[in-house]
């Protein structure tokens, strides 16, 4: 339905927002391990948890998605299917229970995609960053091994100042 490069492709397909190739989750959502997430993209190395507390924002997405979906479902049951209230609340309850894990994961996927853009040049940029890091290391600079490779800014480009340890 969606092609690689589209935001919706990586949101719905639960792919890394930078390379659109690496998976977000170690296990399928129906095994109920709610947040069984890779720390970094297995393909491009993007750090998924961009900063401490990053996933708090995803809770708002989860709330929006679930209340929106349930509201639409309720309206359809009420006005199209003409169900009574007991039927509607039973259906809503069951849907909420079943959809819970999927919704929790979808919200993280959407939140991460809001913060990180698709970047088809990730490979080249990673190589350049590695080169620069090697140069700095050769000069005796204390280089942060982790964040320089994995974290990146809002627009898919990492700022170089993240290379230095503070
Ligand atoms: Zn990736």
List keywords for this structure.
single chain, 166 residues, mainly alpha
How many distinct folded domains? 2
How many angstroms does the end-to-end distance come to? Answer: 45 Å
Report low-confidence residues grouped into runs of 5 or more: 148-166
Basic shape: elongated
Q: Kindly provide the radius of gyration, computed on alpha-carbon positions and rounded to a whole number of angstroms.
A: 20 Å
Q: What's the number of extended β-strand segments?
A: 0
Oligomer: single chain
Model description:
The protein folds into 2 domains: 7-115, no CATH class; 122-163, no CATH class. 50% of the residues lie in helices and 0% in strands. It has 5 helices and no strands. Helix 2 packs antiparallel against helix 3 (85-115). Bound molecules: zinc ion (ZN). Zinc ion binds at residues 16, 18-19, 21-22, 41, 43-44, 46.
């Amino acid at each position: 339905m969606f092609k690689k490069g589209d935001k919706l492709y990586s949101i719905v397909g639960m792919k890394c927002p930078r390379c659109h190739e690496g998976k977000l989750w170690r296990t399928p959502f129906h095994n109920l391990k709610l947040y069984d997430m890779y720390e970094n993209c297995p393909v491009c190395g993007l750090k998924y948890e961009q900063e401490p507390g990053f996933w708090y924002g995803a809770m708002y997405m989860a709330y929006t998605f679930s209340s929106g979906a349930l509201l639409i479902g309720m309206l359809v049951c009420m006005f199209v299917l003409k169900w009574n209230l007991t039927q509607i609340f039973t259906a809503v309850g069951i849907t909420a229970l079943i959809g819970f894990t999927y919704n929790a994961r979808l919200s993280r996927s959407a939140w991460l995609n809001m913060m990180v853009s698709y970047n088809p040049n990730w490979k080249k940029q990673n190589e350049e960053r590695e080169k620069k890091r090697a140069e700095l290391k050769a000069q005796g600079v204390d280089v942060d091994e982790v964040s320089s490779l994995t974290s990146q800014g809002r627009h898919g480009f990492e700022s170089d100042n993240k290379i230095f340890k503070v």
